[in-house]
Write a structure and sequence with these properties.
The protein contains twelve helices and twelve strands. It has 348 residues and is α/β, with parallel strands linked by helices. The protein folds into two domains: 17-134, NAD(P)-binding Rossmann-like Domain (Rossmann fold, 3-Layer(aba) Sandwich), CATH 3.40.50; 153-347, Rossmann fold (3-Layer(aba) Sandwich). It comes from Sphingopyxis fribergensis.
Protein backbone atom coordinates (compact mmCIF):
# COMPACT_ATOMS: atom_id res chain seq x y z
CA UNK A 1 0.00 0.00 0.00
CA UNK A 2 1.23 3.47 -0.85
CA UNK A 3 0.75 5.81 2.10
CA UNK A 4 1.65 9.26 0.87
CA UNK A 5 0.13 12.59 -0.08
CA UNK A 6 0.25 15.03 -2.95
CA UNK A 7 2.06 17.54 -0.73
CA UNK A 8 5.06 15.33 -0.02
CA UNK A 9 7.12 17.02 -2.73
CA UNK A 10 5.64 20.51 -2.59
CA UNK A 11 5.64 20.90 1.19
CA UNK A 12 8.21 18.28 2.15
CA UNK A 13 7.33 15.00 3.80
CA UNK A 14 7.35 15.24 7.56
CA UNK A 15 10.41 13.79 9.21
CA UNK A 16 9.24 12.97 12.70
CA UNK A 17 11.69 11.68 15.35
CA UNK A 18 10.84 8.01 15.83
CA UNK A 19 10.13 5.74 17.62
CA UNK A 20 7.55 7.32 19.89
CA UNK A 21 6.47 7.17 23.50
CA UNK A 22 2.68 7.63 23.27
CA UNK A 23 1.40 10.16 25.81
CA UNK A 24 -2.19 9.62 26.96
CA UNK A 25 -2.42 12.45 29.48
CA UNK A 26 -5.30 12.03 31.93
CA UNK A 27 -7.76 10.85 29.27
CA UNK A 28 -10.94 9.09 30.38
CA UNK A 29 -12.77 9.04 27.01
CA UNK A 30 -11.56 6.32 24.66
CA UNK A 31 -12.51 8.28 21.54
CA UNK A 32 -10.19 11.12 22.53
CA UNK A 33 -7.20 8.74 22.40
CA UNK A 34 -7.75 7.94 18.72
CA UNK A 35 -4.29 9.24 17.77
CA UNK A 36 -2.58 6.76 20.10
CA UNK A 37 -4.81 3.90 18.96
CA UNK A 38 -4.19 4.76 15.30
CA UNK A 39 -0.43 4.65 15.71
CA UNK A 40 -0.59 1.42 17.72
CA UNK A 41 -2.68 -0.27 15.05
CA UNK A 42 -1.11 1.10 11.85
CA UNK A 43 2.48 1.91 12.84
CA UNK A 44 3.27 -0.38 15.82
CA UNK A 45 6.95 -0.53 14.87
CA UNK A 46 7.14 3.20 15.68
CA UNK A 47 5.79 2.85 19.25
CA UNK A 48 7.99 2.00 22.26
CA UNK A 49 5.34 2.28 24.98
CA UNK A 50 2.74 4.55 26.56
CA UNK A 51 2.77 7.09 29.38
CA UNK A 52 -0.40 8.09 31.24
CA UNK A 53 -1.02 10.42 34.15
CA UNK A 54 -2.85 9.49 37.36
CA UNK A 55 -6.57 9.54 36.74
CA UNK A 56 -6.33 8.28 33.17
CA UNK A 57 -8.61 5.34 32.42
CA UNK A 58 -7.66 4.80 28.78
CA UNK A 59 -4.81 2.53 27.66
CA UNK A 60 -3.74 1.34 24.22
CA UNK A 61 -2.27 -1.81 25.74
CA UNK A 62 1.42 -0.95 25.45
CA UNK A 63 3.92 -1.11 28.28
CA UNK A 64 3.74 1.81 30.69
CA UNK A 65 7.06 3.67 30.59
CA UNK A 66 8.28 6.90 32.11
CA UNK A 67 10.04 9.22 29.63
CA UNK A 68 13.51 8.30 30.91
CA UNK A 69 12.72 4.57 30.57
CA UNK A 70 11.40 5.10 27.06
CA UNK A 71 14.50 7.08 26.08
CA UNK A 72 16.69 4.24 27.36
CA UNK A 73 14.77 1.88 25.08
CA UNK A 74 15.36 4.00 22.02
CA UNK A 75 12.42 6.42 21.94
CA UNK A 76 13.30 9.72 20.32
CA UNK A 77 10.10 11.65 21.01
CA UNK A 78 7.00 11.70 23.16
CA UNK A 79 3.97 11.95 20.91
CA UNK A 80 0.73 13.34 22.31
CA UNK A 81 -1.70 10.56 21.49
CA UNK A 82 -4.80 12.53 22.47
CA UNK A 83 -7.20 14.48 20.26
CA UNK A 84 -9.59 16.06 22.75
CA UNK A 85 -12.39 18.51 22.05
CA UNK A 86 -10.81 21.74 20.84
CA UNK A 87 -7.29 20.30 20.71
CA UNK A 88 -6.32 21.83 24.05
CA UNK A 89 -3.16 21.04 26.06
CA UNK A 90 -4.21 21.47 29.72
CA UNK A 91 -1.94 22.88 32.39
CA UNK A 92 -2.05 19.53 34.21
CA UNK A 93 0.05 17.99 31.41
CA UNK A 94 2.93 20.46 31.69
CA UNK A 95 5.02 18.55 34.28
CA UNK A 96 4.92 15.45 32.04
CA UNK A 97 5.96 17.48 29.00
CA UNK A 98 8.84 19.00 30.97
CA UNK A 99 9.80 15.50 32.13
CA UNK A 100 9.97 14.31 28.52
CA UNK A 101 12.22 17.18 27.49
CA UNK A 102 14.47 16.61 30.51
CA UNK A 103 14.75 12.92 29.58
CA UNK A 104 16.05 13.81 26.11
CA UNK A 105 12.84 13.38 24.13
CA UNK A 106 11.43 15.74 21.53
CA UNK A 107 7.65 16.35 21.68
CA UNK A 108 5.29 15.78 18.75
CA UNK A 109 1.74 17.11 18.88
CA UNK A 110 -1.29 17.13 16.64
CA UNK A 111 -3.30 19.43 18.91
CA UNK A 112 -4.72 22.79 17.84
CA UNK A 113 -2.82 24.47 20.68
CA UNK A 114 0.73 24.82 19.45
CA UNK A 115 3.63 23.68 21.56
CA UNK A 116 5.87 26.44 20.30
CA UNK A 117 3.40 29.08 21.52
CA UNK A 118 3.64 27.88 25.15
CA UNK A 119 6.40 30.15 26.54
CA UNK A 120 7.71 27.99 29.39
CA UNK A 121 7.74 24.85 27.24
CA UNK A 122 9.41 26.63 24.32
CA UNK A 123 12.10 28.13 26.60
CA UNK A 124 12.86 24.76 28.18
CA UNK A 125 13.05 23.02 24.80
CA UNK A 126 15.42 25.67 23.47
CA UNK A 127 17.64 25.42 26.53
CA UNK A 128 17.83 21.63 26.24
CA UNK A 129 18.16 21.56 22.45
CA UNK A 130 14.91 19.63 22.02
CA UNK A 131 12.35 19.93 19.21
CA UNK A 132 8.70 20.91 19.61
CA UNK A 133 6.91 19.64 16.52
CA UNK A 134 3.35 20.74 15.77
CA UNK A 135 1.80 18.53 13.09
CA UNK A 136 -1.51 20.38 12.81
CA UNK A 137 -0.15 23.12 10.55
CA UNK A 138 -1.66 23.54 7.06
CA UNK A 139 0.86 24.37 4.34
CA UNK A 140 1.06 27.93 3.11
CA UNK A 141 -0.48 28.99 -0.18
CA UNK A 142 -3.50 26.68 -0.27
CA UNK A 143 -5.84 27.62 -3.13
CA UNK A 144 -9.56 28.26 -3.11
CA UNK A 145 -11.49 25.30 -4.51
CA UNK A 146 -12.29 25.39 -8.21
CA UNK A 147 -14.69 22.46 -8.57
CA UNK A 148 -12.77 21.39 -11.68
CA UNK A 149 -13.22 17.71 -12.48
CA UNK A 150 -9.92 15.88 -12.00
CA UNK A 151 -8.72 12.67 -13.61
CA UNK A 152 -8.41 9.47 -11.60
CA UNK A 153 -10.81 7.88 -9.12
CA UNK A 154 -11.54 8.85 -5.54
CA UNK A 155 -13.09 7.27 -2.47
CA UNK A 156 -13.95 9.28 0.65
CA UNK A 157 -14.86 7.80 4.02
CA UNK A 158 -17.69 9.74 5.68
CA UNK A 159 -19.38 9.17 9.03
CA UNK A 160 -22.33 9.52 11.35
CA UNK A 161 -19.96 11.10 13.89
CA UNK A 162 -16.32 11.76 14.78
CA UNK A 163 -13.84 9.14 16.00
CA UNK A 164 -15.57 5.99 14.82
CA UNK A 165 -13.39 4.56 12.06
CA UNK A 166 -13.03 6.79 9.00
CA UNK A 167 -9.22 6.68 9.09
CA UNK A 168 -9.09 2.93 9.82
CA UNK A 169 -11.54 2.26 7.00
CA UNK A 170 -9.56 4.34 4.51
CA UNK A 171 -6.29 2.63 5.47
CA UNK A 172 -7.87 -0.82 5.27
CA UNK A 173 -9.47 -0.12 1.89
CA UNK A 174 -6.24 1.30 0.45
CA UNK A 175 -4.42 -1.82 1.62
CA UNK A 176 -7.13 -4.09 0.15
CA UNK A 177 -7.06 -2.24 -3.18
CA UNK A 178 -3.31 -2.65 -3.58
CA UNK A 179 -3.54 -6.32 -2.53
CA UNK A 180 -5.76 -6.77 -5.58
CA UNK A 181 -3.24 -5.08 -7.85
CA UNK A 182 -5.07 -1.75 -7.95
CA UNK A 183 -2.92 1.39 -7.97
CA UNK A 184 -4.07 3.20 -4.82
CA UNK A 185 -2.84 5.85 -2.35
CA UNK A 186 -4.03 6.65 1.15
CA UNK A 187 -4.47 10.42 1.46
CA UNK A 188 -4.16 11.80 4.99
CA UNK A 189 -6.33 14.69 6.15
CA UNK A 190 -5.99 14.51 9.95
CA UNK A 191 -3.16 14.61 12.43
CA UNK A 192 -3.04 10.88 13.11
CA UNK A 193 -3.16 9.99 9.44
CA UNK A 194 -0.37 12.47 8.79
CA UNK A 195 1.72 10.92 11.59
CA UNK A 196 1.20 7.49 10.00
CA UNK A 197 1.72 8.64 6.41
CA UNK A 198 4.42 11.24 6.97
CA UNK A 199 2.54 13.99 5.13
CA UNK A 200 -0.86 15.45 4.34
CA UNK A 201 -3.11 18.38 5.16
CA UNK A 202 -4.76 18.76 8.60
CA UNK A 203 -8.17 19.78 7.25
CA UNK A 204 -9.55 20.95 10.59
CA UNK A 205 -6.77 23.56 10.80
CA UNK A 206 -7.49 25.06 7.36
CA UNK A 207 -9.34 28.39 7.07
CA UNK A 208 -12.88 27.61 5.88
CA UNK A 209 -12.58 29.42 2.53
CA UNK A 210 -9.71 27.10 1.58
CA UNK A 211 -11.14 23.75 2.76
CA UNK A 212 -12.27 22.62 -0.67
CA UNK A 213 -9.05 23.83 -2.27
CA UNK A 214 -6.99 21.95 0.29
CA UNK A 215 -8.94 18.78 -0.47
CA UNK A 216 -8.33 19.27 -4.18
CA UNK A 217 -4.61 19.60 -3.47
CA UNK A 218 -4.52 16.44 -1.36
CA UNK A 219 -5.92 14.43 -4.30
CA UNK A 220 -4.63 15.87 -7.60
CA UNK A 221 -5.07 14.65 -11.17
CA UNK A 222 -4.04 11.01 -11.56
CA UNK A 223 -4.12 8.16 -14.06
CA UNK A 224 -7.63 7.06 -14.99
CA UNK A 225 -7.26 3.73 -13.17
CA UNK A 226 -5.65 5.20 -10.04
CA UNK A 227 -7.59 5.40 -6.76
CA UNK A 228 -7.03 7.97 -4.04
CA UNK A 229 -8.56 6.73 -0.79
CA UNK A 230 -9.18 9.93 1.16
CA UNK A 231 -9.40 9.93 4.96
CA UNK A 232 -12.67 11.51 6.03
CA UNK A 233 -13.15 14.01 8.85
CA UNK A 234 -16.04 14.74 11.19
CA UNK A 235 -19.65 14.41 10.09
CA UNK A 236 -22.08 16.55 8.14
CA UNK A 237 -24.37 16.19 11.16
CA UNK A 238 -21.86 17.38 13.76
CA UNK A 239 -22.95 20.69 15.33
CA UNK A 240 -19.33 21.88 15.56
CA UNK A 241 -17.36 20.17 12.79
CA UNK A 242 -19.76 19.87 9.85
CA UNK A 243 -17.96 22.63 7.92
CA UNK A 244 -14.78 20.56 7.69
CA UNK A 245 -16.75 17.56 6.42
CA UNK A 246 -18.50 19.59 3.74
CA UNK A 247 -15.34 21.24 2.44
CA UNK A 248 -13.64 17.85 2.24
CA UNK A 249 -16.65 16.33 0.47
CA UNK A 250 -16.79 19.07 -2.15
CA UNK A 251 -13.03 19.27 -2.69
CA UNK A 252 -12.28 15.55 -2.84
CA UNK A 253 -15.08 15.03 -5.40
CA UNK A 254 -15.47 11.36 -4.48
CA UNK A 255 -16.74 8.86 -7.01
CA UNK A 256 -17.48 6.57 -4.07
CA UNK A 257 -18.29 7.12 -0.40
CA UNK A 258 -18.22 4.56 2.39
CA UNK A 259 -20.26 5.50 5.46
CA UNK A 260 -18.62 4.75 8.83
CA UNK A 261 -20.62 4.09 11.99
CA UNK A 262 -20.29 2.66 15.49
CA UNK A 263 -23.35 0.57 16.39
CA UNK A 264 -24.75 1.47 19.78
CA UNK A 265 -23.48 5.05 19.84
CA UNK A 266 -26.52 7.25 20.35
CA UNK A 267 -25.19 10.80 20.80
CA UNK A 268 -22.65 12.89 18.92
CA UNK A 269 -19.28 12.62 20.68
CA UNK A 270 -18.75 15.66 22.89
CA UNK A 271 -22.20 17.12 22.11
CA UNK A 272 -24.72 15.77 24.63
CA UNK A 273 -28.30 15.95 23.45
CA UNK A 274 -27.45 15.69 19.76
CA UNK A 275 -28.55 12.29 18.52
CA UNK A 276 -26.67 10.45 15.78
CA UNK A 277 -28.36 10.43 12.39
CA UNK A 278 -29.43 7.14 10.84
CA UNK A 279 -27.21 5.51 8.25
CA UNK A 280 -29.90 6.14 5.63
CA UNK A 281 -29.95 9.87 6.47
CA UNK A 282 -26.15 9.99 6.34
CA UNK A 283 -26.00 8.35 2.93
CA UNK A 284 -28.71 10.63 1.54
CA UNK A 285 -27.19 13.90 2.77
CA UNK A 286 -23.65 13.03 1.64
CA UNK A 287 -24.86 12.02 -1.81
CA UNK A 288 -27.00 15.12 -2.24
CA UNK A 289 -24.25 17.53 -1.17
CA UNK A 290 -21.46 15.57 -2.86
CA UNK A 291 -23.32 15.65 -6.17
CA UNK A 292 -22.59 19.37 -6.33
CA UNK A 293 -19.01 18.67 -7.48
CA UNK A 294 -19.43 15.06 -8.69
CA UNK A 295 -22.91 14.19 -9.99
CA UNK A 296 -21.81 10.55 -10.40
CA UNK A 297 -21.13 10.04 -6.67
CA UNK A 298 -22.41 6.78 -5.19
CA UNK A 299 -22.34 4.93 -1.87
CA UNK A 300 -20.53 1.59 -2.03
CA UNK A 301 -21.40 0.41 1.46
CA UNK A 302 -21.04 0.85 5.18
CA UNK A 303 -18.13 0.30 7.56
CA UNK A 304 -18.95 -0.64 11.15
CA UNK A 305 -16.69 -0.26 14.17
CA UNK A 306 -17.66 -3.34 16.19
CA UNK A 307 -14.64 -3.46 18.50
CA UNK A 308 -16.95 -3.32 21.54
CA UNK A 309 -19.08 -6.27 20.37
CA UNK A 310 -18.71 -10.05 20.55
CA UNK A 311 -17.86 -11.57 17.17
CA UNK A 312 -21.10 -13.52 16.73
CA UNK A 313 -23.16 -10.48 17.67
CA UNK A 314 -21.24 -8.24 15.28
CA UNK A 315 -21.50 -10.64 12.33
CA UNK A 316 -25.24 -11.09 12.85
CA UNK A 317 -25.84 -7.34 13.07
CA UNK A 318 -23.81 -6.58 9.95
CA UNK A 319 -25.61 -9.29 7.95
CA UNK A 320 -29.03 -8.00 9.03
CA UNK A 321 -28.18 -4.36 8.30
CA UNK A 322 -26.66 -5.28 4.93
CA UNK A 323 -29.93 -6.93 3.93
CA UNK A 324 -31.93 -3.97 5.22
CA UNK A 325 -29.81 -1.35 3.45
CA UNK A 326 -29.15 -3.32 0.27
CA UNK A 327 -25.43 -2.53 0.63
CA UNK A 328 -22.35 -4.37 1.93
CA UNK A 329 -21.80 -3.78 5.66
CA UNK A 330 -18.44 -4.83 7.12
CA UNK A 331 -15.93 -4.19 9.87
CA UNK A 332 -12.60 -3.66 8.04
CA UNK A 333 -10.64 -4.80 11.09
CA UNK A 334 -12.55 -8.09 11.32
CA UNK A 335 -12.21 -8.53 7.55
CA UNK A 336 -13.69 -11.72 6.13
CA UNK A 337 -16.23 -12.20 3.34
CA UNK A 338 -18.24 -9.14 4.36
CA UNK A 339 -15.22 -6.88 3.91
CA UNK A 340 -14.37 -8.54 0.59
CA UNK A 341 -17.89 -7.69 -0.61
CA UNK A 342 -17.40 -4.09 0.47
CA UNK A 343 -14.13 -3.89 -1.52
CA UNK A 344 -15.89 -5.44 -4.54
CA UNK A 345 -18.60 -2.79 -4.31
CA UNK A 346 -16.08 0.04 -4.07
CA UNK A 347 -14.25 -1.10 -7.18
CA UNK A 348 -17.35 -2.04 -9.19
Amino acid sequence: MNIQTSLDVAAGALQLPQPYLLFLGDTTIRGYAKTAFGLRDWAPEKCVGEYALPGATVSVGLEQLAPAEARARGARSMLIGVANSGGVIPESWMPALFEALDAGLDIVSGMHMRLAEMPELAARAERLGRQLIDVRHPPAGLPVGTGRKRSGKRLLTVGTDCALGKKYTALALARAFTARGVDADFRATGQTGIMIAGGGVPMDAVVSDFEAGAAETVSPDAADDHWDVVEGQGSLYHPAYAAVSLGLLHGSQPDVIVVCHEPGREEILGSPGYLLPSIEETIDLNLRLGARTNPAIRCAGVSYNTAHMAEDEAIALMAADSERLGLPVADPIRGGDAFARLVDSCLA
